[in-house]
């Protein structure tokens, strides 16, 4: 049996698909003070930033799709196991600059936690495997540089 909370979350995923992409509709599912947290990257989006975050991701992956593997509603909490999929066709922002389009496909394991209040999304925590995402774009971590920097700073053990 599908719960009201699960229906709301499934609608949020539908509105975030590349072939639908309805940022204002997605935002309308949130409480006035609701937040969208990209946990691995330490980013929090509120208010009008929420649809902008969707649009930014869709500009890098216009065919973005979320393949839902499991949806588990427990009252006002919905836990989802999924894969974020798409083709890298636009610039992808990083702290070091933008990764230009590579044409590579991504298939990123993710877990999302949705917390609802009075039929609206209060908090959406997205735990995507950012390391997998970047590796699939060809931006694997540069461990050698990190080791050299630590050694130069005298912090190696």
UniProtKB/TrEMBL annotation:
Protein name: Ester cyclase
InterPro entries listed in its UniProt record: NTF2-like_dom_sf, SnoaL-like
Span of the signal peptide: none
Record-linked SUPFAM superfamilies: NTF2-like
Originating species: Promicromonospora kroppenstedtii
Any Pfam family matching the protein: SnoaL_2
Ranges where the SnoaL-like domain occurs: 15-121
């Amino acid at each position: 049996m599908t719960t009201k909370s699960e229906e709301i979350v499934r609608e949020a995923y539908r509105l975030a698909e590349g072939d639908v992409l309805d940022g204002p509709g997605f935002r309308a599912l949130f409480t006035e003070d609701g937040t969208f947290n990209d946990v691995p990257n330490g980013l929090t989006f509120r208010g009008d930033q929420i649809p902008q975050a969707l649009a930014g991701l869709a500009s890098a992956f216009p065919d973005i799709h979320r393949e839902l593997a499991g949806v588990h509603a427990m009252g006002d909490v919905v836990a989802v196991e999924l894969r974020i999929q798409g083709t890298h066709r636009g610039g992808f922002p990083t702290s070091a600059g933008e990764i230009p389009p590579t044409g590579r496909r991504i298939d990123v394991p993710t877990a999302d936690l949705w917390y609802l209040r009075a039929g609206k999304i209060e908090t959406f925590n997205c735990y995507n495997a950012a390391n997998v995402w970047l590796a699939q774009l060809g931006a694997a971590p540069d461990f050698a540089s990190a080791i050299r920097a630590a050694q130069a700073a005298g912090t190696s053990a």
